[in-house]
Amino acid sequence: MPPFLLIAAAAAGAVFGAKALKREWLRVNRELDRNEPASSVAEQTARPTLRRDPATGEWRPQ
Question: What is the mean pLDDT of the chain?
Fold first, then answer.
């Protein structure tokens, strides 16, 4: 078999594989986004802000 046909077949397989991988990646992310509840602004403001303590270097709530 001529080498250029092998290279062309390998390139076509790589393109097909990349498209299949992208399609699966997007499908999984859509499913995860659908199942994850949207965080509200109230939830985000209820979380404490962390600040680094200069004496110990540990992160502590503000």
Answer: 89
